[in-house]
Amino acid sequence: MDVTFRIRRYNPEIPGQDKPYWQEFSLKDVAETDRVLELMHRIKWEQDGTLAFRRSCSHGICGSDAMRINGRNALACKLLIRDVGEKVQLEPILGLPVKKDLIVDMEPFFDHYRSVMPYFVNNDPIPADGRERLQDPEAQQIFSDSTNCILCACCTTSCPSFWANGQYVGPAAVVQAHRFIFDDRDQAAEDRLNALSEPDGVWRCRTIFNCTPACPRGIEVTRAIGEVKLAIMRGTPKGVINPKDIKVHM
Protein backbone atom coordinates (compact mmCIF):
# COMPACT_ATOMS: atom_id res chain seq x y z
CA MET A 1 0.00 0.00 0.00
CA ASP A 2 0.99 3.64 -0.47
CA VAL A 3 0.93 5.97 2.53
CA THR A 4 0.99 9.77 2.68
CA PHE A 5 2.43 11.52 5.71
CA ARG A 6 1.46 15.11 6.54
CA ILE A 7 3.94 16.39 9.13
CA ARG A 8 3.93 19.69 10.99
CA ARG A 9 7.41 21.18 10.59
CA TYR A 10 9.17 23.98 12.48
CA ASN A 11 12.79 25.08 12.70
CA PRO A 12 13.42 28.37 14.55
CA GLU A 13 16.99 28.56 13.23
CA ILE A 14 16.14 28.79 9.52
CA PRO A 15 14.33 31.79 7.99
CA GLY A 16 11.16 30.67 6.27
CA GLN A 17 10.86 27.65 8.55
CA ASP A 18 10.62 29.63 11.79
CA LYS A 19 6.83 29.47 11.67
CA PRO A 20 4.96 26.14 11.72
CA TYR A 21 4.07 24.73 8.31
CA TRP A 22 2.91 21.41 6.84
CA GLN A 23 4.96 19.14 4.61
CA GLU A 24 3.84 15.96 2.86
CA PHE A 25 5.82 12.81 2.16
CA SER A 26 4.74 9.75 0.15
CA LEU A 27 5.91 6.21 0.82
CA LYS A 28 5.37 3.14 -1.34
CA ASP A 29 5.47 -0.56 -0.56
CA VAL A 30 4.19 -0.10 2.98
CA ALA A 31 2.93 -3.14 4.88
CA GLU A 32 -0.09 -2.91 7.16
CA THR A 33 2.05 -4.18 10.03
CA ASP A 34 4.69 -1.47 9.64
CA ARG A 35 4.84 0.83 12.63
CA VAL A 36 4.50 4.58 12.26
CA LEU A 37 7.99 5.02 13.72
CA GLU A 38 9.52 2.72 11.10
CA LEU A 39 8.03 4.83 8.31
CA MET A 40 9.26 8.00 9.97
CA HIS A 41 12.73 6.49 9.81
CA ARG A 42 12.25 5.88 6.09
CA ILE A 43 11.28 9.52 5.59
CA LYS A 44 14.30 10.77 7.52
CA TRP A 45 16.80 8.35 5.98
CA GLU A 46 15.49 8.34 2.41
CA GLN A 47 13.79 11.70 1.81
CA ASP A 48 14.58 14.44 4.33
CA GLY A 49 17.37 14.09 6.86
CA THR A 50 16.36 17.34 8.57
CA LEU A 51 13.17 15.85 10.02
CA ALA A 52 13.52 15.93 13.82
CA PHE A 53 11.79 13.63 16.32
CA ARG A 54 12.66 11.70 19.47
CA ARG A 55 12.84 7.94 19.82
CA SER A 56 14.92 5.48 21.78
CA CYS A 57 13.82 1.94 22.67
CA SER A 58 11.19 1.64 19.91
CA HIS A 59 9.23 -0.80 22.08
CA GLY A 60 6.80 1.40 24.02
CA ILE A 61 8.89 1.51 27.19
CA CYS A 62 10.89 4.75 27.08
CA GLY A 63 7.97 6.98 26.03
CA SER A 64 10.22 9.32 24.08
CA ASP A 65 8.32 9.20 20.75
CA ALA A 66 5.01 10.59 22.02
CA MET A 67 3.27 12.77 19.42
CA ARG A 68 -0.15 13.57 18.00
CA ILE A 69 -1.01 11.02 15.34
CA ASN A 70 -4.17 11.79 13.37
CA GLY A 71 -5.22 14.17 16.14
CA ARG A 72 -4.66 11.86 19.12
CA ASN A 73 -1.72 11.40 21.43
CA ALA A 74 0.14 8.12 20.97
CA LEU A 75 3.56 6.50 20.77
CA ALA A 76 4.74 6.22 17.17
CA CYS A 77 6.49 2.95 17.95
CA LYS A 78 3.24 1.26 19.03
CA LEU A 79 0.82 2.25 16.27
CA LEU A 80 0.61 0.08 13.16
CA ILE A 81 -0.33 1.49 9.77
CA ARG A 82 -3.46 -0.67 9.72
CA ASP A 83 -4.57 1.25 12.84
CA VAL A 84 -4.11 4.71 11.30
CA GLY A 85 -4.82 4.28 7.59
CA GLU A 86 -3.18 5.47 4.38
CA LYS A 87 -3.11 9.14 5.42
CA VAL A 88 -1.12 9.91 8.55
CA GLN A 89 -0.89 13.35 10.14
CA LEU A 90 1.86 13.97 12.69
CA GLU A 91 2.13 16.92 15.09
CA PRO A 92 4.05 17.61 18.31
CA ILE A 93 2.16 17.03 21.56
CA LEU A 94 0.30 20.13 22.77
CA GLY A 95 0.90 22.42 25.73
CA LEU A 96 4.72 22.30 25.71
CA PRO A 97 7.09 24.62 23.78
CA VAL A 98 8.14 23.20 20.41
CA LYS A 99 11.90 23.13 19.87
CA LYS A 100 11.96 21.69 16.34
CA ASP A 101 9.47 19.73 14.24
CA LEU A 102 8.05 17.00 16.53
CA ILE A 103 10.39 17.69 19.45
CA VAL A 104 9.02 19.61 22.44
CA ASP A 105 10.72 21.01 25.53
CA MET A 106 9.95 18.47 28.27
CA GLU A 107 11.41 20.51 31.14
CA PRO A 108 8.08 22.10 32.22
CA PHE A 109 6.61 18.59 32.34
CA PHE A 110 9.46 17.25 34.46
CA ASP A 111 9.33 20.30 36.74
CA HIS A 112 5.75 19.30 37.61
CA TYR A 113 6.86 15.70 38.03
CA ARG A 114 9.58 16.67 40.50
CA SER A 115 7.17 18.88 42.47
CA VAL A 116 5.19 15.89 43.80
CA MET A 117 8.20 14.14 45.41
CA PRO A 118 8.19 11.13 43.03
CA TYR A 119 10.41 8.99 45.22
CA PHE A 120 10.09 6.67 48.18
CA VAL A 121 10.35 8.31 51.63
CA ASN A 122 10.89 6.19 54.75
CA ASN A 123 13.11 7.30 57.61
CA ASP A 124 12.69 4.19 59.74
CA PRO A 125 15.86 2.19 60.43
CA ILE A 126 16.70 -0.43 57.84
CA PRO A 127 15.53 -3.90 59.01
CA ALA A 128 18.16 -5.64 61.11
CA ASP A 129 18.41 -8.50 58.64
CA GLY A 130 19.26 -6.01 55.88
CA ARG A 131 16.33 -7.09 53.73
CA GLU A 132 14.05 -4.79 51.81
CA ARG A 133 10.87 -3.41 53.35
CA LEU A 134 8.34 -6.11 52.58
CA GLN A 135 4.75 -5.39 51.62
CA ASP A 136 1.58 -7.43 51.52
CA PRO A 137 0.57 -8.20 47.87
CA GLU A 138 -2.93 -6.88 48.53
CA ALA A 139 -1.52 -3.54 49.71
CA GLN A 140 0.67 -3.34 46.60
CA GLN A 141 -2.31 -3.80 44.31
CA ILE A 142 -3.79 -0.52 45.55
CA PHE A 143 -1.22 1.47 43.60
CA SER A 144 0.12 -1.10 41.11
CA ASP A 145 -1.60 0.55 38.13
CA SER A 146 0.26 3.82 38.80
CA THR A 147 3.65 2.11 38.65
CA ASN A 148 3.18 1.53 34.90
CA CYS A 149 3.72 5.21 34.05
CA ILE A 150 6.62 5.78 31.61
CA LEU A 151 6.49 9.62 31.72
CA CYS A 152 5.71 9.95 28.02
CA ALA A 153 3.46 12.99 28.74
CA CYS A 154 0.65 11.65 26.54
CA CYS A 155 -1.91 12.10 29.32
CA THR A 156 -0.80 15.55 30.45
CA THR A 157 -0.58 17.00 26.93
CA SER A 158 -4.04 15.64 26.05
CA CYS A 159 -5.58 17.61 28.93
CA PRO A 160 -7.49 20.84 28.07
CA SER A 161 -6.89 22.10 31.62
CA PHE A 162 -3.14 21.83 30.97
CA TRP A 163 -3.47 23.54 27.60
CA ALA A 164 -5.30 26.42 29.29
CA ASN A 165 -2.86 26.72 32.18
CA GLY A 166 0.64 25.27 31.89
CA GLN A 167 1.11 25.74 35.65
CA TYR A 168 -1.35 22.91 36.30
CA VAL A 169 0.69 19.99 37.63
CA GLY A 170 -1.00 17.67 35.14
CA PRO A 171 -2.28 14.07 35.13
CA ALA A 172 1.14 12.38 34.89
CA ALA A 173 2.42 14.11 38.02
CA VAL A 174 -0.73 13.14 39.92
CA VAL A 175 -0.30 9.52 38.83
CA GLN A 176 3.29 9.58 40.07
CA ALA A 177 2.15 11.04 43.40
CA HIS A 178 -0.61 8.42 43.63
CA ARG A 179 1.98 5.65 43.37
CA PHE A 180 3.62 6.81 46.62
CA ILE A 181 0.62 8.27 48.48
CA PHE A 182 -1.00 4.84 48.64
CA ASP A 183 2.17 2.88 49.37
CA ASP A 184 1.78 1.93 53.05
CA ARG A 185 5.57 1.84 53.46
CA ASP A 186 5.99 5.48 52.45
CA GLN A 187 5.91 8.32 54.99
CA ALA A 188 5.42 11.45 52.87
CA ALA A 189 1.78 11.09 51.79
CA GLU A 190 0.71 14.21 53.69
CA ASP A 191 3.41 16.33 52.04
CA ARG A 192 2.32 15.20 48.58
CA LEU A 193 -1.36 15.76 49.31
CA ASN A 194 -0.58 19.26 50.60
CA ALA A 195 1.33 20.03 47.39
CA LEU A 196 -1.53 18.74 45.25
CA SER A 197 -4.03 20.83 47.24
CA GLU A 198 -2.45 24.03 45.92
CA PRO A 199 -4.31 26.12 43.28
CA ASP A 200 -2.37 24.50 40.43
CA GLY A 201 -2.69 21.03 41.89
CA VAL A 202 -5.18 18.24 41.42
CA TRP A 203 -8.28 20.45 41.65
CA ARG A 204 -7.64 21.90 38.21
CA CYS A 205 -8.69 18.52 36.84
CA ARG A 206 -12.21 18.84 35.37
CA THR A 207 -12.66 15.09 34.81
CA ILE A 208 -12.70 15.47 31.03
CA PHE A 209 -11.31 11.92 30.63
CA ASN A 210 -8.93 12.78 27.76
CA CYS A 211 -6.03 11.43 29.78
CA THR A 212 -7.12 7.82 30.27
CA PRO A 213 -7.56 6.86 26.57
CA ALA A 214 -4.34 8.74 25.75
CA CYS A 215 -2.22 6.55 28.04
CA PRO A 216 -0.25 3.99 25.97
CA ARG A 217 0.19 1.83 29.08
CA GLY A 218 -3.50 1.52 29.85
CA ILE A 219 -3.34 3.33 33.20
CA GLU A 220 -6.70 4.45 34.57
CA VAL A 221 -5.47 8.00 34.98
CA THR A 222 -8.80 9.64 35.81
CA ARG A 223 -9.46 7.03 38.48
CA ALA A 224 -6.07 7.73 40.10
CA ILE A 225 -6.81 11.47 40.08
CA GLY A 226 -10.19 10.84 41.70
CA GLU A 227 -8.62 8.76 44.44
CA VAL A 228 -6.12 11.51 45.21
CA LYS A 229 -8.94 14.07 45.39
CA LEU A 230 -10.82 11.88 47.86
CA ALA A 231 -7.68 11.36 49.93
CA ILE A 232 -7.28 15.13 50.21
CA MET A 233 -10.91 15.58 51.29
CA ARG A 234 -10.90 12.76 53.83
CA GLY A 235 -7.39 13.07 55.19
CA THR A 236 -4.07 11.34 54.60
CA PRO A 237 -4.35 7.59 53.98
CA LYS A 238 -2.04 6.48 56.79
CA GLY A 239 -3.77 6.42 60.16
CA VAL A 240 -6.93 8.21 58.99
CA ILE A 241 -8.58 6.05 56.37
CA ASN A 242 -7.85 2.82 54.61
CA PRO A 243 -6.86 3.48 50.96
CA LYS A 244 -9.16 0.64 49.92
CA ASP A 245 -12.09 2.61 51.29
CA ILE A 246 -11.66 5.46 48.83
CA LYS A 247 -11.46 3.43 45.65
CA VAL A 248 -13.18 5.33 42.85
CA HIS A 249 -15.66 3.29 40.83
CA MET A 250 -16.06 4.27 37.18
Looking at this protein, list some descriptive labels.
250 residues, alpha+beta, Ubiquitin-like (UB roll), Fumarate Reductase Iron-sulfur Protein, Chain B, domain 2, 2 domains, five-stranded mixed β-sheet, two-stranded antiparallel ribbon, 7 strands, 30% helix, elongated
Strand content: 5-15%
Q: The CATH topology of the largest domain is what?
A: Fumarate Reductase Iron-sulfur Protein, Chain B, domain 2
Can you list the strand order of the major beta sheet? 2-1-5-3-4
Structural class per helix/strand content? alpha+beta
**Could you tell me the number of beta strands?**
7
| Ends apart, CA distance between termini | 41 Å
CATH architecture of the largest domain: Orthogonal Bundle
**Tally of helical runs:** 10
Average pLDDT: 93
Task: Evaluate the radius of gyration.
Answer: 21 Å
How many structural domains can be distinguished in the coordinates? Answer: 2
Tell me what you see in this structure.
The mean pLDDT is 93. The protein is built from 10 helices and 7 strands. By secondary structure, it is an alpha+beta fold. Helices cover 30% and strands 13% of the residues. It has a 5-stranded mixed sheet with strand order 2-1-5-3-4, with helices on one face. A two-stranded antiparallel ribbon has the order 6-7. It has helices at residues 36-47, 81-84, 107-115, 137-141, 160-164, 171-181, 189-196, 211-214, 221-234, 237-240, and strands spanning 3-9, 21-27, 66-69, 72-75, 87-91, 98-100, 103-104. It has 2 domains: 3-104, Ubiquitin-like (UB roll) (Roll); 107-246, Alpha-helical ferredoxin (Fumarate Reductase Iron-sulfur Protein, Chain B, domain 2, Orthogonal Bundle), CATH 1.10.1060.10.
